Amino acid sequence: MSSGPQTRNQHAVDAEIDHITLSVGDARARAAEYVERYGFEVIAAGETPEFTAVAVGQRDTVLLLLQGLTDDHPSTLFTARHGDGVSDIALRVATPDPTVLQAFGDVTHSFVSRPAGAPWSLPGIAPVRTEGTTETAATSAPATRHLLRVDHIAVCLETGELDGTVEFYRRTLGWEVVFEEDIHVGAQAMQSKVVQSPNAGVTLTLLQPMSGAVPGQIDDFLKKHGGGGVQHLAFAVPNIVDAVAELGGSGVRFLSTPDTYYEDLHERLGSSGYAVAELRKHSVLADRDHDGELFQIFTRSEHPRRTLFMEIIERRGATTFGSNNIRKLYEAVERQDLA
């Protein structure tokens, strides 16, 4: 892990997510999927002898689909090791900085400074007018734009790497842990620590398997991905029932939830912003913490390795991450299997 320049150790760094780079084997095809299924629109594109790039945006979220065209391009090397996946989480900061930090696994942090309201661009990647198309990637979104922003990014780490990764963020960016817990699901167990920028513009949920526990979903990701990396991106929405209904109609495939999960949901949550019947119809999970309610659902991974997936999340005051849902869903599946 690179510690970056020593000046970064002097103060905490406020940051927002400028964009998330996904290294992919086919940038145009992947961009078209985000446009058609999630309601993004193409905002920039570029092609050089080294790469093809398409940037898709929706409100404050920009995903950069980057395809290496040479054997030694970083995106080519990344996809050879991991398949398509998040390779860089670019941080928007006040002062331009050419530093690139090696964060975890093969994922980096680059730093971007751009004027407010300026068209999104990077060297070799120019803004695209909203009318028309860029070959197979349509620029305009056919679906309603439900996604507000990136709520958090979930990261899987090898056992023993969690504390070192937390220290890396403290040392280089001055980010601190805002939430932590151990999650036990049957004989499986994982540790979670959430690091966040001081302005809450970037939230990373760091997960590692607990030593000695039965292997679970984190171990499965690490094996299939080939080490630590981004497991899922969580997108905030204003109304999860409307979002899931429309995204599902656009081709996004969500994980189903067994009916047994909802048997005691009213007793667990009390009065809720959604009727239990609505949540059951759309397989939405619900949780409550001391600050409010949280509703979430996960997509089925479309990745050939079954690694990267997405989360749709609505917060009504809640500040935690739905760990009770992991336990309750596990128990619901067990009840269903025994029925």
From TrEMBL:
The keyword Iron applies. GO terms for biological process: L-tyrosine catabolic process. GO terms for molecular function: 4-hydroxyphenylpyruvate dioxygenase activity; metal ion binding. SUPFAM superfamilies: Glyoxalase/Bleomycin resistance protein/Dihydroxybiphenyl dioxygenase. Residues 16-153, 149-300 form the VOC domain. The keyword Transport does not apply. This is VOC domain-containing protein.
